[in-house]
Queue: 4 jobs
Job 1
Amino acid sequence: MQGERLLEGVRILALASIGLGVGLHYARMGYMPLDHSVCFDGGWRVLCGQVPFRDYVAPSGLTVHALQAVFFALFGVTWFAYCLHAAVFNALAVLGVDRLLVLLGLERAWSSVFALCTAFVFFPPVGVPMMDSHAFFFSLAALLAALAAARAASARTLRWSAYAVGPLLALAFLSKQIPSVFFLPATLALALWSLDRRRTTFVRVLAGLAATAAVCALALAALGVDWELVDTYWRRLPSAEGSRRLALFSSPQSLVHRFVETWRDLGLLSPAAAFGAGLAGLLLPLLPARFRRGAALSRTWPCCALAVFLTLAALFFVTWTFNQEEIGVPLVFAASGCVAAASLHLSASAREHGKPRLAGALWLALPLLAAAAVLDAWAFAREVDATRRANDLVFDARAAGEASRELPEGLAYLRWCVPKLVRYSPGDLCALVEYLRARAGGVFLLGDTSIVYGLSGKESVAPSLWFHPGLTAPRPYDRGFERYQALLLRRFRELDVQTVVVEGERTWVGYRANPGKKPPEFAYFTLATWPKLARLVEERRRAERSFGPFRAIELGP
C-alpha cells in the first residue's frame, strides 16, 4: 500500500512537472502586443490598488487580473512572473484532466497519456495568461468538483465538492463569460449522477451558486464599483458584440460548415473520432435490455455525454468568439479520455457477460485513442505552439535570441518575435521604458503595448485595458461615449499625466466609421477621437520625443 502511494505521488509530480515545463518553454516565445498586454496590465492595475468598474473597465478577465497581481507581488513585475502564472495553471490543468478521467473510471496509465497531451493545448497556444484559458480551466475545475460530489465515497468529500462548484463557476465566469456559461448545465447534470443522496447533492450545488452570487455582489458593492459601468462593459457591450457575431451564422448549415472548417484547419483526428464515438455511445439506452446491463449504461453513457459536450464546447467557443481556433481546444484530449473510459467500461461489461472477443475489441479502442491523441499533440506542438501561430507571428529562434539582448530588464525572460504589424524594435521599447521611468508625473498610452505602464512603474491611466471599439470603449456614435471620455479625463487629472505616448499611427482594432452605410469605412482610435482630451493635450503640449514609432508628448502644467 505504501509503495502504491509512493508511485502515485511520483506519477502526479511527473505530470505537474511536465505541464509546468511545457508551459514555461512556450510562454516566453514571442510577443503579441494586443493579446499579451491585456492581463499583464490588468495584474499591474490590481497591484497598484485599482478596482475594476471603478478605476478601469473590462468585459472579462477579473479573475486573471487578481491572480496575476499575486504573481507580480511574489516574483516582481517581470515577464517571468507573467509566464510562470500561465505555466503553473498549465500544470494544474494537466492534473485536473487526469483526475477527471480517473473519477470517470479510466486506469491511471491511460489517464496520464491524455493529461500529458493536454499540456500542449491548454496554455501554450498563446503562452501567457489569458481570459479564455482561465475560463476553461475553472470550468474544468467546476466539472471536476461536480463529478467528485456525484461519485464521492465519503460524506465530507461529497459536501465540500458540491459547495465548491459555485465558487469555481464564478471564477470561470469572471475570467470570461464564454465558454463559462456552457458549463453551468453540464455541472448541474453531473451533480445529478450521484451514487446516492442525489437530491442533497443537487441542493448543495445550488446553495453554493446562490451564496457565491451574493458574496460577489457584496464584494463589488464594498469596493465601490459603479454599477452603470458594470452594466455597460460587462453586460451590454459584450452581449451586443456576441449577438453581432452569432448573426453571421444565419442557418444551421452555416454553423455546421463552421464546425467542419474548424476541424479541418486544426487537423486534429482524435477529437473528431471521440466526438463520433461519443455520439454513438449516446444511443446505448436505445439498445435491447440484454446489451445495456450494468456498467454498459450506468457508467458509459455519462462518459460519452461528457465527451460530446467537451467537443461541442470547443466548437461553439470558436464559433461564438471569433478567436483563433487554436485557443479553443484545451479540453479536446479530455474528451478523448472520456471515450476511452467509456470503452473500458463497455469492455468490462462484455467480459462479465461472457463475450471475450467483444471485450478485446472494445479494449483496443484505448491504445488507438491514446496513440491518436499523442500524434495530435505532437503535431499541435510543432505546428501551433512552436510557430506561435495563434499569436499571428512566425517564431524564429535565432533572430529572437539576438534581438532579446536589447529588451528592458523586466522583459529579460522574453524571446523577442512580433507580428508584422509591429514596427518597433526591442531597443525602441527599452529606450521608451527608461525615458518614462525618469519622467515625473503620470503617463497615458494611446496604443496596444500597455505593458509599458508596469515596466516603467507608472500607474495605468486608460479606462480600458485595451482599445477595442464597441467592446472595451464606445465608438464616437455609441451611447456612453461622453461618459467614457469623462472617465478618461478624470483619470488623466487624478494621476497627474505629464506624458502622452502615442503608439504608431493606429490601434490594432478598428471600427466602422459609417454604421449602416456602404461601402464600409474603417477608423481607429486616435487623440482626435476624444475632442476634449485632444484639446487638453494641445493646450499643454511643450515638447515631443520619438522612440521608433512611439511619440512621447511632454505636457506642461
Job 2
Amino acid sequence: MKFNFSIILLFVSTSFYCQDSLSLFKKAKENVKISGGFSSIGTAYMINDTSLSQRDPFFWQLGANINIKIGQVSIPFSAVMNQQERNFTQPFNQYGLSPKYKGITAHLGYRSLKFSDFSLSGNQFLGVGIEIAPKNSIVRGKALYGRFARAVDGYYTDGKVVGSPSFERWGLGGMVEIGSSKNNVGVVVFRAKDDQASIASFANDATIKPGENLIFGLTTKQKLSKELSFKGEIDWSAFTKDLRLDPTVLEGFSYLNNIGPLFHANASSSFSKAVKADLEYNKKKFKVGFGYRRIDPEYQTMGSVYLNNDFEDLQGKTSLRMLKNKLTLAGSAGFQRNNLDDSKASEMLRLISSFSANYNINENFMVNGAFSNFNSQSYMTIVNSLDTNRYAQVTKNANLQLMYAKANDVRRIAASIRGNFQNAKINGIDNTTLYNGGVSFQYGHLKSGLNVVSAINASKNITETYDIVSVGPTLGLNKRFLSGKISASASASALKTFLGGVDNGYVLNVKSMGTFKLNRHHTFNLIFSTIGKNNATTDTQETTISLGYNYAF
C-alpha cells in the first residue's frame, strides 16, 4: 500500500507540475508578440537606345521589418539589402533594431538620431545609441557612437579618378534636456573625425582631405504664457578641414588648442556659429509669429547630410480665421541676405512675401487662392573700380482653384478647376511668363470598388526668344475583384508640345499594376511601366517590369 500510494502521489505531483509548466509556458507565450514582414522586389529595365541608359538592366532589393514585444519591452528590427551596395559610400545593405522598454530606447545597427537642426540632424550611422525619456522625469537624454561614413579607396584609370573616395568617419555625441515638454533647456555635444589611415590611394591627395568637427550647442523651448511661446537654438562649430597639417593656435579661439583629444586645431581650422529663434503668439482664431536664422559663412557639421551657410533671414507670418471658420487668411513676409563677412565680390538680398485665402462656400464647394512675390537683388563691385553692377529679379506667382466634392454610401465624386500665373522679370524686363491650367474629375463607386480619374492640363511658357505650349490628357482606372483579394489599376497620360507654333513631339506614359492578396500573409505585386519620348532629336522608349512579394505575420 505504501508503494502504491507513493506511485499515486508521484503521478499526481507530476501532473500538477506539468500543468503548472504548461500554464507558465502559455502565459510566457501570450506575453511575447512578434509582428512584421519581409519584402522582395525585382525590376527589369529596357530601353531602345542603350547609349542613353542610366540604370542597370536588372535591380533587386530585399527588406525586413520585424517587431518583437516581450511584456513592456519592444524590439523593432529592420534590414535592407540590394545589389547597389558596392557602388556607394554609404551602404544600401542596412540592418538595425531599436529595442524599447518603458522610457528607454536603444539603437543598434544602422540608425539615425536628431539632437538639433545645426548639430546632429538625422545623419545615418552604424553603431549604438540610446534615448532615455522617463515618463514623469524632467531630465531626458540621448547618446550615440558609431561610423558615419565607411572608407572608400578610389582608384585611377587613365589619369582619372574612378569612384568617390572618402575617409572612414566615426562620431559620438550626447544631448541632455532638462524641463517639461513646454519649458526646457538642452545641451548638445557632438564630435566626428575622419580616420587618416582608412584609405591608401588618396591618403596624401590634395583634393581628398581628412577632417574633424566638434560642436557644442544650447536649445530651449519656453511657454511664456498661455498664448506666447518661444523656441531657439545656438550651436558653435569648430571644424578642421585637413588633419594632416601641423598644429597651430587658432587665432581668437586659442582655448580650442587646450581641450586635449577633442579637437586638433591647425591652419585649416575655423570656428563659427548658427542661431535660430522662433516667437509665436496663438490665440484661438488669430496667430502671428516671427522667425530669425543666422548661419555663419564657414559653419559646417558632420552630423547633417546637407546644410546651407552664409545667410541671415528674418520672417514674419500670420493667419486669421473668420466667418465661423469658413474663411482663413494667411500671409508672410521676410528677407534674406548673404556675404555676412563681406568676403565675397557679390552680395545678394532676397525679399519674399505671400498671401493666401481659403473659403468653404458650403459642404460641397471650396475655393482657395494665393499670391507670392519673390524679389532677388545682387550687387557686384568691379575690381579696381568704384562702379557696382546691380542684378535684380522679380518673380510673381498667383493661383486660383475651385473644388467640388460630394460623397454618400454609394459613390464619391470630386472635381476641380485651377489656374496659375507666373511672371519673372530681370532688371525690369519681362523674361518669362507662364500660364498653367487644368480640369480634373474623380468618381468612385464604393460597392464595386471602381475608381476613375481623368484630367486635362495645359500650359504656355513665353520667353524673349520663343513660346512653348503643352497640352495633354490623363486617365486612370482602379478596380477591386474577389472581395478585395485582387486589385488592378491602369493609367495613361500624354503631353503634346508645340515650339513657336510648330509640332515639337510628345511624351506618352502608360502604367499598370496588379496586386494579388492570397491571404493575410502573402501578397504579390506586378507593375508594368513604359515611357515614350519623341521630338526632333529624340525617339526613346523606356520600359520597366517589376515583380514583388510581401510576407506579413
Job 3
Amino acid sequence: MPVAQNLPTGPPTRTAATDTGDFDHPPTAAGSGPRASVGLPPAPALHRAGRWRLAAAAVWLALMAWLGFAGYIALPSGQLGSDAMLGFAVFGTGAAVLLAAAVAAHERAQARLAAEVEHAWVQTRHQLQALFTSQTEQLEALRRDAHVDALTGLATRRHFLTQLDRVLASGLPRLGLVILRVCDVQGMNRRIGREAADHVLQTLAQTMMQYPHRHDGCLAGRLNGTDFALVLPVPGVARETAHALVSAMRVPMVSVDGAAGVCGGVVELAAPVAVAMALSLADEALARAEAAGAFRVVQADHAPPDPPLGEATWQQHLADALQQARTSLGAYPVCAADGRVLYLDCPLRIQLGASQDRRVAAHWLPMAARARLCAQVDAHVLGLALQAIAADGRGRCINFAAQSLGFSSFVAHATQMIELAQPHAGRLWIDLPESLALERPELVRDVALRWGAAGVQVGLEHVGEALARVPGLPDMGLKVVRVDSCFIDGAAVPGAADLRRHLRALVQVAHGLGMSITAEGVRDAADLQQVWSLGFDAATGPAVQPMSPQYSG
C-alpha cells in the first residue's frame, strides 16, 4: 500500500542540511510486499493447476458422453454387446468422479489461496498500524517539545501568547485574563529544595489545567519561571476564578513552606485590545497584588464593553438574522505555493439587532452554542455555500460546529442538501473541529465517508494539538488537515527549530495518510516561506498573495 512508504520505522532523525528534522524512510525492494513476507505460493500457479485439472476432466467427460451416445444408438442394431455398454458406463462414472475430484481440488486451492491472502492482509494491516502508531507517538513528542513546558505541562510562553493574540484578534467581545505569580521562587528553592519547589509549581499548573479541560476556549500557559496565565472566554468570572485558584493553593504551599505565597492580577478585557496592552493591564494588577501581600488578588480596570445582552435576547437576535437573511459569507483565498487560488474560506457574518455591522463568529458563536442554535446556523451556512458555488463555480470551504453534528437530524438534512446539490457539491470543503475527531471519531468517520461519497472534501480544522491522539485516523476518510495558526506563527524564527520539527512531522503524517495539509492564518511572509519549504500544500492568511484578484470578507 502507498501509505507504507510514508511511515517511519525508527525514531526521528535530523539531516545535516536542515534543522527541521525528518523521519527515516526505509527503502522498499521488489518482492517485499505482503505476499512475499508470509511465503504465499504464486497465485498464477494455483490458477493454472486448477484450470488444467478442470480441462482434463471436461475432455474426459465429453469423450465418455460421446461414446455413450454412440453406444445408445448402436445397441438396438446389435452392433454392441452388453459388455461394451458396461465398459462405457464404468468409464463415464470414472469421468464424473474425476470431474468432481477436480472441482473439489480447485475449490480447496482457491480456499487456501483466499485464506493465505487474508492472513497476509491482516499481517499487513497490523504492520501499518504499528508503523502509524510509532509515527504518531513521535509526532506527539515533537509537539510537546515545541509547545509544552516540560515541568508543568502548560503551554510555553510563545505558544500561549500566540493563542492569546489569536483570541484577541478573533473579535470575541469580552474575556478575562488572570496572571498568577508564585512569590520568591528562588527563596523557596533554598528553603525546601528544588524538587519540592518544582512540585509546588506542578500543583499550581494542575489546578489551573482544570479550567481548559472542563471549558472550551480556556487557555493556560507558563509565562516564565514564576508567572502563570489563564484566559477565560466568559466575561465576569476572572476575579472569582483567580480567588478560587489562590485559595486552592494556600494549604499546599504553606504546608511545605510557611513563607511561600501566590498572588493574582486580573483584567476583564473588551475587544479590540492588543496582547501587549492586555499583559500590561494584568501586570499592573499583579504588581498591586504583590504589594498587598501573599494570596491577594487585584483587578485592573479596562474600557467597558458593549452593554451585555441576556440569553433570550441573543437567541432572538440570532433567529431573526437567519430568518431575515441578514447574513453573508466571507471569501478568503486558500492558495497553493505558486499563488493559485484553490478555493475560498467562507466564514459566516451575521447582522445582529439594530447594528449595521455583520459580526464574526467569535462574537455570536458562544451564545449560539448556549442557545443550541448551531445546527440551524450551520444548515444556513451550507445553503449559502452551495448557492454561491452554483452561481460562480468557485470552490468554497465552510465549517460545522461540533454541537451541530451531535444532532442526527442535522446530519441527515445536510446529507440531503449535499446530494440534491450535485454536481456543485464536488466543489465544497467542510471543516470539522480536531477536538470532535478526538472525542467522537466514529461520528467524524461516518459523515466524512457519507459526504465524501458525494464529492465533498471533509477535513479537520485548527489541527496541531491532538492529531496524534485521534483514534482510527487512517480509516476516517478525511481529505484535508488545516494546522492552527498558533502552531504556524514564529516558524521562521531562528530559535524555533523545535516548532519546525513539529510542523514537518505534521506534514509527513498527513501526506502518509493521503491527505493534503493547509496552514491557517499565516500573517508573516517569512513564516509563509517556511511553510512552503516544510511541504505544506496550501495556506491562507494575510501573508498569502493570490495570483487572481484579492478577496475580502
Job 4
Amino acid sequence: MSGLILIILLLILFIIMIIRGIVENKTNLKILKRDFEKNFGKANTRTWKIEEMELVSRYAKKRETKQTIDELTWNDLDMDLIYQQMNYTESSFGDDYLFYILKNPLNNEELLQKREEKISCLARNTEKRIQLQILFHKIGRLKRYSFMDCVEYLIEEQTKSNGKHYLVDVFIFLSIILMAFNIGMGVMLFFALILYNIVMYFKHKAYLDPYLASLRYLFKILDYTKEIAKMLPEEWTIERQKLQEILSSMKKIQKNAFLVMSPGRMGGEGLELILDYLRMIFHLDIIKFNQMLGELKIQEQNLWDLYEIIGEMDACIAVVWYRKWLPLSCCPTLIEEKEINMVDGYHPLIENAVTNSFKMKENILLTGSNASGKSTFLKTVAINILLAQTIHTCTAKEFYLPFCSLFTSMSLKDSITLKESYYMAEIKSIKRILDSAYDGNMIVCMIDEVLRGTNTVERIAASTQILKSFSRPNVLCIAATHDVELTKTLEELYENYHFEESMNQGDVVFSYHLMKGIAKSCNAINLLEHLGYDKDLIMNARNMVNIFETQGEWICK
C-alpha cells in the first residue's frame, strides 16, 4: 500500500510540473516576441569566445571550394569580427551557415538574386519573421560540440545492443511490484538497481555525450520543422517542399523522440530535471540512441539538407537585422564591365566612419602618410566586394562591381613556428594572387605596402615589376605604398589617389577623405614630434631629409 501511495504522489508531482511548464512556456513566448520587436535594428550584443569561432567555422571548412575566400584574405579583413557583428542568428545551424555564406562568394547572378528574394521576403513579412525567430530560438545552440562533427561521427559509429539496458529496466519495474508484497525487500532492490543504472549511465554517457547532445538537438529541429515549413513565404516554396519530404522520410527516427529530447513545447526547468532523472534511471536516451543509429546512416543526405535549409533561413533573418542596424546600406549592382564604383562607402567596424566615393576602371596606386586612412580604405572596398557577393549587401549608398575573386595581402607577420621571415611571408602571399591572375578569372586584389620587408632599392625595383604584372585585362588592383617612387615607375599603368593630413596648432589632423593625385605631405617626423620625442632628434631628422632632397644622399650629423 505504501508503494502505491508513493507512485500516486510522484504522478501528482509530475502533472504539477507539466502544468507549471506550460504556463512558463506561454509567458516566455510573450517575453521573447516582445524582445524581438523591441531589439530589431539595435546593435548586436552577443559576446564570443575563441572556441566558439572554431566550432562555427567547421561546416565552412568541410564545404571549401575554389570559390572559398582564403584564410589570409579573411584575416586581413577582420571577417571574424564582421561575422560576429552581423550574427543575429538564434541557432547553431544559423551560426554555421552564416559563416559558410560569408566564406563562399557566389559567382552566379541568378543564385545571388534568389538569395536576395529570400532575404527581402523575410524583411517584408515581420510577423512570420518573428515567429521563425522564436522557433529558431527554441531550437537553440549546441554549446560544446559542432553538430556537423557529431553527424559525421554518428555515421561512422557501430550499432550496439540494448539487451542489458532492457534487462535492468525490467528488474526495476519488478522491484516496484515487489513493494506491494514486501516493502523492505522491494525498496532495497529498487534503490540498488537505480544506483547501478545511474553509475552505468554516467559510464556510457561520458562517451556518448556529444552524440546524445546532437540527437537532442536534431529532435528539437525535427519537432519544430513542421511549424517552420507551414509559415514559410512563397519565396521559400522549394525549401518548404524539401522539409516536408525530410519529415516524412525521418518519421521512424522521430518515433519516441521524447525519450532523448528536452521538453521543448512544454518548457520549464522543473520538467527537464525530472526527465533527466528518468534518463539516468532507465537509460532512455542511450536505448533510443542505439535504436536509431542504423536509421541515421540511411538518412545522412537528409540530415545535411536539413542542416542547410534551417541554417540558411536563420542566416537570412540575421541579414535582415544587420541591414536594419547599419546606418547606410544598399544592394549591389553586378555589372559585366571591369569596373568598381563605390558611392559613400564606409568600414562597418568603425563607429561614425568617414564615407568615401571612387570609381576605378584601371589599377590604383594609393599614397599617403602614416595613419591617414590607406589601410582602412583598402579594407572598406574589399569588405564590400565580399559582402556584395555573399549577403548581397554593401555598406555604402551605391556599389557597382563585376563578379570576381577577392585577394588581399595586408596584415602579414613573421612566423617563428614556420621559420619564415616577414619578407618570405609577403612574397608567398603576393605570389598566390599572381598565380590566380594567370588563370584568367576576374581578380580584385588589395596590397598594403608591397614588399615592405626588404631594402629600399630592391623594394622599388621588385615592387614595380610585381605591380606591373597585375596590369592584366582580368585584374583590378589597389596597392597602398609609402614609396612615392612607384608613382613615377608606374605612372602609365596606375591611377594615383591619396590621403592627406593637416597641422592644426601642432596637432596632426586627418580628414580620411580620398583624393585624386599623389600625396605631397609626409608626417612620420611630425608624429614623433607630436608624441614628445627629443627636439634635437626631430631637428636632425628634418635636416637629413632636406639634405637628401637637395643633394640626393643621406648624411648623418
